[in-house]
Amino acid sequence: MTGKERAELRSEAHHLTPTVHVGQHGLTPSLVGALDDALRTRELVKVKLANKDEVKPKEMANSLATATNSAVVQVIGRTATLFRENPDLDKKRGDIPPWRR
């Protein structure tokens, strides 16, 4: 992902609310499944990370990205933004992106 693409996704993600929350149990298979579903339908997802001191937010975001085969767009505080393109979604020129729907 180029810097320009990442900057565009960051500006799009600014208005999103977190759809997946990492709780006290951390990375569980059900959490990874929920994040995978969100990425499949929306492509751009904000994740609220738990307040665990032993795991840094960037490390947690990288673990989530690896588990879901996605890319980390940004990490601000305890909120991470992940992106994974879904080629199966119908995209036409001029349509709104799936994360705005």
What does this structure look like?
With 101 residues, the chain is an alpha+beta fold. The longest helix has 14 residues, at 29-42. It is globular, with a radius of gyration of 13 Å. Strands 1-2-4-3 form a 4-stranded mixed sheet, sandwiched between helices. It contains 3 helices and 4 strands. The protein has a single domain, classed as Translation Initiation Factor IF3 (2-Layer Sandwich), CATH 3.30.110.
Keywords:
alpha+beta, 3 helices, single chain, four-stranded mixed sheet, 101 residues, Translation Initiation Factor IF3
Give the helices and strands, then pairings.
Blueprint: H1 3-13, E1 20-21, H2 29-42, E2 44-48, H3 57-68, E3 71-76, E4 79-83
Parallel strand pairs: 1-2
Antiparallel strand pairs: 2-4, 3-4
Provide a short characterization of the protein structure.
The protein has 101 residues and is of the alpha+beta class.
Structural class: alpha+beta
Total helical elements: 3
| Main sheet overview | 4 strands, mixed
List how many beta strands DSSP finds: 4
Into which percent range does the helicity of residues fall? 25-40%
Please report the distance between the alpha carbons of the first and last residues: 23 Å
Largest sheet, spatial ordering of strands:
1-2-4-3
Quaternary structure = single chain
Low-pLDDT residue intervals, each spanning 5 or more residues: none
CATH topology annotation: Translation Initiation Factor IF3
Order of helices and strands: HEHEHEE
CATH architectural group: 2-Layer Sandwich
Percent of residues in beta strands: 15-25%
Radius of gyration: 13 Å
Q: Count structural domains.
A: 1
Q: What is the CATH superfamily label?
A: YhbY-like
Q: Average pLDDT, to the nearest integer? A: 87
| Assigned CATH class | Alpha Beta
Rough shape? globular
